[in-house]
Amino acid sequence: MCANDREKRAAELGYAPLCLDIIQSELATKRLGTKFHYFQEIDSTNSYARRLADAGAPEGAVVIAEHQSDGRGRLGRSWESPPYCNLYFSLLLRPTLAPAHAPQITLMAAVALADTVAEFIVEPPAIKWPNDILLQGKKLAGILTESSCDAKRIEFVILGIGVNLNFPRERMPETIRDRATSLMEVAGNSFSRELVLRRLIQDLDRCYGTLEDFGFDAIAPRWQARFGLKGKTVRVEMGGDVLIGQAVGIDRDGALLVEDDRGERQRVVAGDVTAIED
Ligand code: BTN
Fold this sequence. Notes:
The longest helix is centred in the last third of the chain and has 22 residues, at 193-214. Strand 8 and strand 9 (241-250) form a beta hairpin. It is built from eight helices and twelve strands. It has helices at 3-12, 20-24, 45-54, 103-120, 174-177, 183-187, 193-214, 220-225, and strands spanning 35-39, 61-65, 87-93, 126-128, 132-135, 138-149, 154-163, 233-238, 241-250, 256-259, 265-268, 272-275. Helices cover 29% and strands 27% of the residues. The chain folds into two domains: 3-225, BirA Bifunctional Protein, domain 2 (2-Layer Sandwich); 233-275, SH3 type barrels (Roll). The chain is of the alpha+beta class.
Protein backbone atom coordinates (compact mmCIF):
# COMPACT_ATOMS: atom_id res chain seq x y z
CA MET A 1 0.00 0.00 0.00
CA CYS A 2 1.44 3.40 -0.93
CA ALA A 3 1.56 6.35 1.49
CA ASN A 4 -1.54 8.00 -0.01
CA ASP A 5 -3.65 4.84 0.27
CA ARG A 6 -2.42 4.39 3.80
CA GLU A 7 -3.49 7.88 4.77
CA LYS A 8 -6.85 7.41 3.06
CA ARG A 9 -7.55 4.16 4.87
CA ALA A 10 -6.54 5.62 8.23
CA ALA A 11 -8.62 8.76 7.60
CA GLU A 12 -11.68 6.61 6.83
CA LEU A 13 -11.34 5.24 10.33
CA GLY A 14 -10.76 8.70 11.77
CA TYR A 15 -7.02 8.22 12.37
CA ALA A 16 -3.64 9.08 10.83
CA PRO A 17 -0.88 6.54 10.09
CA LEU A 18 2.25 6.67 12.24
CA CYS A 19 4.91 9.16 11.18
CA LEU A 20 8.31 7.52 11.72
CA ASP A 21 10.13 10.86 11.31
CA ILE A 22 8.45 12.23 14.43
CA ILE A 23 9.27 9.08 16.42
CA GLN A 24 12.92 9.11 15.34
CA SER A 25 13.55 12.83 15.71
CA GLU A 26 15.39 13.67 18.94
CA LEU A 27 15.24 10.04 19.99
CA ALA A 28 18.81 10.24 21.33
CA THR A 29 18.90 6.69 22.71
CA LYS A 30 22.02 4.66 23.43
CA ARG A 31 20.93 1.13 22.54
CA LEU A 32 17.35 1.05 21.26
CA GLY A 33 15.83 2.40 18.07
CA THR A 34 18.87 1.65 15.90
CA LYS A 35 16.62 0.60 13.02
CA PHE A 36 12.85 0.77 12.50
CA HIS A 37 10.90 -1.87 10.56
CA TYR A 38 7.43 -0.48 9.90
CA PHE A 39 4.45 -2.53 8.71
CA GLN A 40 0.98 -1.59 7.73
CA GLU A 41 -0.18 -5.04 8.74
CA ILE A 42 1.69 -8.03 10.10
CA ASP A 43 0.84 -11.29 11.86
CA SER A 44 2.79 -10.38 15.01
CA THR A 45 5.64 -7.91 15.51
CA ASN A 46 7.19 -10.43 17.95
CA SER A 47 7.24 -13.13 15.28
CA TYR A 48 8.93 -10.80 12.78
CA ALA A 49 11.46 -9.59 15.35
CA ARG A 50 12.32 -13.21 16.14
CA ARG A 51 13.02 -13.84 12.45
CA LEU A 52 15.27 -10.74 12.43
CA ALA A 53 17.09 -12.03 15.52
CA ASP A 54 17.55 -15.49 14.00
CA ALA A 55 19.03 -13.81 10.91
CA GLY A 56 21.62 -12.06 13.13
CA ALA A 57 20.18 -8.53 13.26
CA PRO A 58 21.88 -6.35 15.90
CA GLU A 59 20.38 -5.14 19.16
CA GLY A 60 18.03 -2.19 19.15
CA ALA A 61 15.84 -2.94 16.12
CA VAL A 62 12.21 -1.88 16.50
CA VAL A 63 9.44 -3.69 14.65
CA ILE A 64 6.23 -1.70 14.62
CA ALA A 65 2.88 -2.32 12.97
CA GLU A 66 -0.36 -0.42 12.52
CA HIS A 67 -2.32 -3.66 12.81
CA GLN A 68 -1.58 -7.25 13.83
CA SER A 69 -3.65 -10.09 12.38
CA ASP A 70 -2.31 -12.54 14.97
CA GLY A 71 -1.20 -10.37 17.90
CA ARG A 72 -0.07 -12.64 20.70
CA GLY A 73 -0.37 -12.28 24.46
CA ARG A 74 0.96 -14.27 27.38
CA LEU A 75 -0.15 -17.83 28.14
CA GLY A 76 -1.26 -18.45 24.55
CA ARG A 77 -3.81 -15.64 24.56
CA SER A 78 -4.37 -13.24 21.68
CA TRP A 79 -3.83 -9.47 21.76
CA GLU A 80 -6.49 -7.23 20.21
CA SER A 81 -4.69 -5.16 17.57
CA PRO A 82 -7.11 -2.99 15.57
CA PRO A 83 -5.52 -0.63 13.02
CA TYR A 84 -4.19 2.87 13.69
CA CYS A 85 -5.40 3.52 17.23
CA ASN A 86 -2.86 1.77 19.49
CA LEU A 87 0.81 0.84 19.72
CA TYR A 88 2.11 -2.62 18.80
CA PHE A 89 5.85 -3.01 18.66
CA SER A 90 8.74 -5.32 19.49
CA LEU A 91 12.35 -4.61 20.38
CA LEU A 92 15.27 -6.88 19.68
CA LEU A 93 17.62 -7.06 22.68
CA ARG A 94 20.88 -8.90 23.08
CA PRO A 95 21.47 -8.51 26.84
CA THR A 96 24.62 -9.58 28.65
CA LEU A 97 22.54 -10.86 31.60
CA ALA A 98 22.84 -14.47 32.74
CA PRO A 99 20.04 -16.66 31.27
CA ALA A 100 18.50 -17.14 34.73
CA HIS A 101 17.97 -13.37 34.86
CA ALA A 102 16.08 -13.13 31.55
CA PRO A 103 12.70 -12.60 33.36
CA GLN A 104 14.11 -9.34 34.75
CA ILE A 105 13.75 -7.86 31.26
CA THR A 106 9.95 -8.09 31.54
CA LEU A 107 9.97 -6.40 34.95
CA MET A 108 12.35 -3.69 33.72
CA ALA A 109 10.04 -3.05 30.77
CA ALA A 110 7.02 -2.79 33.09
CA VAL A 111 8.84 -0.08 35.08
CA ALA A 112 9.67 1.88 31.92
CA LEU A 113 6.15 1.49 30.57
CA ALA A 114 4.57 2.65 33.83
CA ASP A 115 6.97 5.64 33.93
CA THR A 116 5.97 6.63 30.40
CA VAL A 117 2.26 6.33 31.16
CA ALA A 118 2.73 8.47 34.28
CA GLU A 119 4.28 11.21 32.09
CA PHE A 120 1.09 11.48 30.05
CA ILE A 121 -1.66 11.11 32.63
CA VAL A 122 -2.22 12.11 36.26
CA GLU A 123 -3.96 8.84 37.15
CA PRO A 124 -1.19 6.63 38.60
CA PRO A 125 -0.46 3.42 36.65
CA ALA A 126 -0.03 0.17 38.58
CA ILE A 127 1.97 -2.91 37.67
CA LYS A 128 0.32 -6.30 37.96
CA TRP A 129 2.97 -9.02 38.16
CA PRO A 130 4.65 -9.69 35.91
CA ASN A 131 3.69 -7.75 32.87
CA ASP A 132 0.42 -5.84 32.96
CA ILE A 133 0.05 -2.11 33.29
CA LEU A 134 -3.27 -1.15 34.83
CA LEU A 135 -5.10 2.15 35.01
CA GLN A 136 -8.07 2.35 37.37
CA GLY A 137 -7.77 -1.42 37.79
CA LYS A 138 -8.15 -2.17 34.07
CA LYS A 139 -5.54 -3.37 31.62
CA LEU A 140 -3.91 -0.64 29.59
CA ALA A 141 -0.82 -2.42 28.28
CA GLY A 142 0.86 -5.79 28.15
CA ILE A 143 4.35 -7.14 27.60
CA LEU A 144 5.30 -10.38 25.91
CA THR A 145 8.97 -11.36 26.19
CA GLU A 146 10.32 -14.29 24.23
CA SER A 147 13.93 -15.32 24.48
CA SER A 148 16.48 -17.69 23.07
CA CYS A 149 19.17 -18.84 25.52
CA ASP A 150 21.75 -21.56 25.89
CA ALA A 151 23.21 -22.68 29.23
CA LYS A 152 25.66 -19.77 29.38
CA ARG A 153 24.15 -16.80 27.66
CA ILE A 154 21.05 -15.14 26.33
CA GLU A 155 21.23 -15.09 22.56
CA PHE A 156 18.39 -12.60 22.23
CA VAL A 157 15.20 -11.36 23.87
CA ILE A 158 12.20 -10.12 21.93
CA LEU A 159 10.38 -7.55 24.00
CA GLY A 160 6.88 -7.09 22.61
CA ILE A 161 4.65 -4.31 23.91
CA GLY A 162 1.04 -3.47 23.21
CA VAL A 163 -0.49 -0.24 24.54
CA ASN A 164 -4.17 0.69 24.29
CA LEU A 165 -3.84 4.34 23.43
CA ASN A 166 -6.79 5.73 21.46
CA PHE A 167 -8.85 2.54 21.57
CA PRO A 168 -12.55 3.51 21.67
CA ARG A 169 -14.61 1.38 24.05
CA GLU A 170 -17.13 0.60 21.31
CA ARG A 171 -14.36 -0.96 19.20
CA MET A 172 -13.27 -3.27 22.03
CA PRO A 173 -14.60 -6.79 21.63
CA GLU A 174 -16.92 -7.90 24.42
CA THR A 175 -14.36 -10.45 25.57
CA ILE A 176 -12.09 -7.68 26.88
CA ARG A 177 -14.48 -4.74 27.37
CA ASP A 178 -14.89 -5.22 31.13
CA ARG A 179 -11.16 -5.71 31.79
CA ALA A 180 -9.46 -3.34 29.35
CA THR A 181 -9.07 0.41 29.14
CA SER A 182 -7.15 2.92 27.06
CA LEU A 183 -5.23 6.11 27.78
CA MET A 184 -7.88 8.04 25.86
CA GLU A 185 -10.69 6.59 27.91
CA VAL A 186 -9.10 7.51 31.23
CA ALA A 187 -7.86 10.95 30.17
CA GLY A 188 -10.87 11.93 28.08
CA ASN A 189 -8.69 13.03 25.14
CA SER A 190 -6.67 11.29 22.45
CA PHE A 191 -2.86 11.07 22.39
CA SER A 192 -0.18 11.35 19.72
CA ARG A 193 1.00 7.80 19.13
CA GLU A 194 4.36 9.13 17.91
CA LEU A 195 5.06 11.14 21.08
CA VAL A 196 4.05 8.31 23.39
CA LEU A 197 6.12 5.79 21.43
CA ARG A 198 9.19 8.03 21.31
CA ARG A 199 9.00 8.60 25.05
CA LEU A 200 8.47 4.90 25.66
CA ILE A 201 11.52 3.90 23.63
CA GLN A 202 13.57 6.53 25.52
CA ASP A 203 12.35 5.26 28.91
CA LEU A 204 13.01 1.66 27.90
CA ASP A 205 16.49 2.62 26.71
CA ARG A 206 17.28 4.23 30.08
CA CYS A 207 15.82 1.40 32.18
CA TYR A 208 17.52 -1.27 30.06
CA GLY A 209 20.83 0.59 30.42
CA THR A 210 20.34 0.68 34.20
CA LEU A 211 19.62 -3.06 34.30
CA GLU A 212 22.64 -3.89 32.15
CA ASP A 213 25.04 -1.55 33.96
CA PHE A 214 23.87 -1.76 37.60
CA GLY A 215 21.79 -4.93 37.82
CA PHE A 216 18.25 -5.62 38.95
CA ASP A 217 18.78 -4.11 42.42
CA ALA A 218 18.66 -0.71 40.73
CA ILE A 219 15.29 -1.49 39.15
CA ALA A 220 13.50 -3.54 41.85
CA PRO A 221 12.53 -0.62 44.18
CA ARG A 222 10.96 1.22 41.26
CA TRP A 223 8.99 -1.89 40.37
CA GLN A 224 7.89 -2.38 44.00
CA ALA A 225 6.74 1.24 44.20
CA ARG A 226 4.26 0.62 41.39
CA PHE A 227 3.21 -2.87 42.43
CA GLY A 228 -0.56 -2.60 42.72
CA LEU A 229 -1.20 -5.93 44.45
CA LYS A 230 1.12 -5.45 47.42
CA GLY A 231 -0.56 -6.66 50.64
CA LYS A 232 -3.65 -7.90 48.76
CA THR A 233 -4.99 -11.43 48.84
CA VAL A 234 -4.24 -12.98 45.47
CA ARG A 235 -5.01 -16.15 43.58
CA VAL A 236 -2.15 -17.47 41.48
CA GLU A 237 -2.78 -20.07 38.80
CA MET A 238 0.31 -22.03 37.86
CA GLY A 239 -0.56 -24.69 35.30
CA GLY A 240 -3.02 -26.87 37.22
CA ASP A 241 -1.97 -25.58 40.67
CA VAL A 242 -3.60 -22.73 42.55
CA LEU A 243 -1.96 -20.73 45.32
CA ILE A 244 -3.92 -18.30 47.48
CA GLY A 245 -2.09 -15.91 49.76
CA GLN A 246 -0.96 -12.37 50.35
CA ALA A 247 1.19 -10.69 47.69
CA VAL A 248 4.40 -9.45 49.29
CA GLY A 249 6.50 -8.20 46.38
CA ILE A 250 9.27 -9.60 44.22
CA ASP A 251 12.37 -11.61 44.98
CA ARG A 252 15.81 -10.51 43.80
CA ASP A 253 15.38 -12.46 40.57
CA GLY A 254 11.94 -11.02 39.87
CA ALA A 255 9.89 -14.00 41.14
CA LEU A 256 6.60 -13.03 42.82
CA LEU A 257 6.55 -13.61 46.59
CA VAL A 258 3.26 -14.76 48.08
CA GLU A 259 2.75 -15.51 51.76
CA ASP A 260 0.48 -18.54 52.15
CA ASP A 261 -1.98 -19.25 54.99
CA ARG A 262 0.81 -20.92 57.02
CA GLY A 263 2.82 -17.71 56.83
CA GLU A 264 5.38 -19.26 54.47
CA ARG A 265 6.71 -17.31 51.54
CA GLN A 266 6.18 -19.03 48.20
CA ARG A 267 8.03 -18.03 45.05
CA VAL A 268 6.10 -17.81 41.80
CA VAL A 269 8.18 -17.77 38.62
CA ALA A 270 5.31 -18.15 36.13
CA GLY A 271 1.57 -17.91 36.48
CA ASP A 272 -1.53 -15.78 36.30
CA VAL A 273 -2.29 -13.55 39.28
CA THR A 274 -5.64 -12.03 40.22
CA ALA A 275 -6.65 -10.08 43.30
CA ILE A 276 -9.40 -11.61 45.40
CA GLU A 277 -11.94 -9.20 46.80
CA ASP A 278 -11.79 -9.33 50.60
C1 BTN B 1 -0.06 -9.80 27.44
O1 BTN B 1 -0.44 -8.95 28.24
O2 BTN B 1 -0.56 -10.92 27.42
C2 BTN B 1 1.05 -9.44 26.51
C3 BTN B 1 0.56 -8.68 25.31
C4 BTN B 1 1.67 -8.28 24.35
C5 BTN B 1 1.15 -7.71 23.06
C6 BTN B 1 2.25 -7.19 22.19
S1 BTN B 1 1.64 -6.25 20.83
C7 BTN B 1 3.23 -6.22 20.12
C8 BTN B 1 3.83 -7.59 20.33
N1 BTN B 1 3.46 -8.50 19.27
C9 BTN B 1 2.67 -9.48 19.71
O3 BTN B 1 2.20 -10.39 19.00
N2 BTN B 1 2.47 -9.35 21.02
C10 BTN B 1 3.17 -8.21 21.57
